Amino acid sequence: MNDSFCPATDVLINQSRELYRMKNLLIFAFSLLLPxxxxxxxxxxxxxxxxxxxxxxxxxxxxLNQTGGTTEANLVNGGAFYLSxxxxxxxxxxxxxxxxPEWQKSTVRMVNGNSxxxxxxxxxxxxxxxxxxxxxxxxxxxxxxxSVTIGEDRFLMMPDPMLKKRGAVIYQLHYTSGAYQLIExxxxxxxxxxxxxxxxxxxxxxxxxxxxELILRTKGEFVKIKNHGEALRSLGVDKKxxxxxxxxxxxxxxxxxxxxxQFLEYLDAR
Length: 270
What we know:
By secondary structure, this protein is of the alpha+beta class. Helices cover 34% and strands 30% of the residues. The relative contact order is 0.10.
């Protein structure tokens, strides 16, 4: 397995680029013929009266829009002088496609209880674990996994506690104790490029947009942590309390996993 795992295959990319080159070739050939056509028409127009000139000018306009409909229709549908934009290609950014792109010492624990030590990494673009065996990369079926530890990071396969994602979902386990559990979802999605105008034929790319969700279990419920205040409310911590003052003194932002872990350790130690 390599980094071209996305749905944008090399064939799709090559077809898009070939179409782009063919359009440019047709435009170039047409541009060579057009001046001779216009010059011939303008020469004849100067040798006739005003009425004939107007008629030939109208004929030229009709030629420019010979694909049918009005000028506006040609701008939308593509007339003799208008181009359609090339399809966007997929841009693979390895640092965004993986939680950490480098291979690391990993431990894979299966649902049947067996464990294996191997080099691995986590691909967030489609939530999949890759392992390296004899120089070849393989993808593991997450339905057969119970947990995977990659370096210092531990991941669990579990149903979405927010009930929004189907099937087994991969979460990074940041912290767990009798009172709290902190997990984080790492994912990504393809982001479309900005809309082009009809004359812009530059190559456009779909890019990877990382997505994260920090989820805290407290008092038997799971809460998605979006900001500092929401974390305090979920933990039942008053803004004027000693605990809140501790967070402020240590400049903790509780919507960041590392800071929230420190705060949970502080709460458990009290």
